[in-house]
Structure prediction request, 235 residues.
Amino acid sequence: MFTLKIDKIIKHSDSISTLFFNSRLKSYPGQFIMLNLPEYEEIPLSLSSSASVTVKAVGETTKALIRIKAGERVGIRGPFGKPFSFTDKRALLIAGGIGVAPLFYLYDYLSDRGAEVEVLYGAKTSEELVWKDKFESAEFTTEDGSEGFKGTVLDLVKQKDLSEFDRIYVCGPEGMLKEALNLLKKLNLLERSEFSLERYMRCGIGLCGSCVLDDGSRVCADGPVFNGKDLDGLI
Ligand SMILES: Cc1cc2nc3c(=O)[nH]c(=O)nc-3n(C[C@H](O)[C@H](O)[C@H](O)COP(=O)(O)OP(=O)(O)OC[C@H]3O[C@@H](n4cnc5c(N)ncnc54)[C@H](O)[C@@H]3O)c2cc1C
Ligand code: FES
Prediction:
């Protein structure tokens, strides 16, 4: 483990912040770190750039992270896990809630390397749609209709011609991933799709077994990014 200083914080809402480290991590979009805040549990967080994480406060550790001040230090193991694959053609990013975090990194990475990237990003309310100006080409949805299209992000996805995209990247809550997987299967597009999964993690390096899927894959080491065809029947 090594430590990094928190250099800068962007507070997107009462419960969501992006914390920037004082140093970049050699990493690829889709990878995660195990972050250690003294006196709290170590938790997995996706990198939202090579030098940041974007955190939503849900329990003790994430609530403490949201309260952290610039200048404080955190412990880090990683980066770990399998990243998203690369395309320089047309890419669609589908984000639900805080699932947008790794897609911020992927968006910059693909755009910088010549891909044409479109984003469909949904949340429950407009308050939970964060850092929207980061995307040049994006459409937003909210379940309460407070911003953009009223409905879930998948309601909007269903209106698009998905066959136009070389790669479709999906990240969000488990129910959304399952629905997206079924939709892409029906459209015969599973092979072009990649999903980032979350499971309870302890070691982060494939040893403890706490993140294992039914087929024996370890989300920390064989994922967290999986091709859609490898997840059929697993989520
Ligand atoms: C690979 C990976 C990447 C992740 N990336 C991010 C990220 O970029 N930003 C972010 O905010 N969070 C991310 N998470 C989720 C984050 O790790 C959990 O929110 C965190 O561990 C919760 O810790 P806590 O002590 O605050 O809450 P706890 O007290 O542990 O839990 C509070 C509540 O959150 C639920 N919860 C805990 N862990 C998860 C989880 N993994 N998925 C869904 N619900 C959970 C619990 O069931 C409980 O209801 C990621 C998880 C994984 C596995
Ligand atoms: S977290 Fe230990 S095997 Fe995945």
Q: What stands out?
A: The mean pLDDT is 97.
